[in-house]
Amino acid sequence: MERSLRRDITTYVIVAVVLGVLLTASIVTGMMDLGHWNPVVALGIASAKALLVAVFFMHLRERPGILSIFAIAGLFWLAILFTLSWVDFSTRY
Amino acid sequence: MSDVARHVAEHFDDFPQQHHAAGLGMWMFLGTEVLFFGGLFLGYSLYRHDFEDAFRAAGEHLYMWIGATNTGVLLASSLTMAIAVALGHHERWRACRWFLIATAAIGVCFLGLKAYEYYLDWSDQIVPVLHFKAEHFTKVDPAHARLFFVFYFVFTLIHALHLLIGIGVVLSLAWFAGRGKASPNQVEMTGLYWHFVDIVWLYLFPLLYLVA
């Protein structure tokens, strides 16, 4: 097996193990009662997992930066959607 | 290096340019998918805020162990998919084909577990419109609890549809890879789609199963 291929696969396995640890953290914190912090912690861990998948499995780390800009652009429009909608709904009543 | 694998369409100068263009196109498509799912996530977040108690009570009726297992299952499929992409780039098509088949098989496991969960949901009478027992909810407004399940089914059904499409694409790619007719580009772009569907689930799992 060529060295670069072996290195890639090793990286993916390590990332998968970290993802497994984060999943365990999701489940453990999900079963604890943290009050209003539960959703924050749950979404924080989910975002950490998503970031790992995007950076390593989806190659954002090694592909040209413009791909990361395209990826962030989607999140940017999503942020506008959420911000404007939440400003609207939270000031209605 | 096979001809098919590095075939360059006539409107591209060379393979790296074609690879770059494919990546841009795929990420742009994924951007539209983010907004497609984003609308649902927005609606969910607003109603979760307004009817927090009802959503918590309703969320307790879901099967956390199935959701958690399915998260692990999808993460495993992402690993096999990532390895298939790496093998494709090195044109090790036989190994690549087997990892693609494994990816699709793990995807089928996910759908099987999901189907079993739907069966349990049906038995529990928490399927809005079709089979819903309002008496489950005495302390909260059943209409608000029902809304949670509407979100749950719409989210998971649309996600399952995405996964089903992914399984189809991955299997057809495995077929081509086995005959030396696949290109590393195709495997990589399919991988991007697969990982995206995985990421959507990474958010669905805490939002639906852990809100309780």
Explain what this protein looks like in three dimensions.
The complex is a heterodimer of chains A (about 90) and B (about 210). Chain A is built from three helices and no strands. Chain A is an all-alpha fold and about 90 residues long. In chain A, α1 packs antiparallel against α2. The mean pLDDT of chain A is about 90. Chain B is mainly α and about 210 residues long. In chain B, α3 runs antiparallel to α6. Chain B is elongated and about 65 Å long. Chain B starts with 14 loop residues before the first helix and ends with a helix. The mean pLDDT of chain B is about 90. At the A-B interface, α1, α2 and α3 of A face α1, α3 and α6 of B.
SSE layout and pairings?
The complex is a heterodimer of chains A (93) and B (212).
Chain A: H1 3-31, H2 37-57, H3 65-90
Helix pairs in contact in A: 1-2
Chain B: H1 15-50, H2 52-59, H3 64-89, H4 93-123, E1 126-127, E2 131-132, H5 142-178, H6 184-209
Antiparallel strand pairs in B: 1-2
Summarize the structure.
Chain A has helices at about 5-30, 35-55, 65-90.
The rounded distance between the terminal residues' Cα atoms of chain B is 54 Å
Helical content of chain B, roughly? over 70%
Report mean pLDDT of chain A, rounded to a whole number.
Answer: 91
Biggest chain contact: A-B, 45 and 47 residues
Structural class of chain B: mainly alpha
Instruction: Give the CA-CA distance, first to last residue of chain A.
Output: 64 Å
The number of strands of chain B is 2
Most strands sheet of chain B: 2 strands, antiparallel
Strand content of chain A: under 5%
Strand order, largest beta sheet of chain B: 1-2
User: What would you call the shape of chain A?
Assistant: flat
Strand composition percent of chain B: under 5%
Q: List the quaternary state of the chains.
A: heterodimer
Number of strands of chain A: 0
Low-confidence stretches of chain A: none
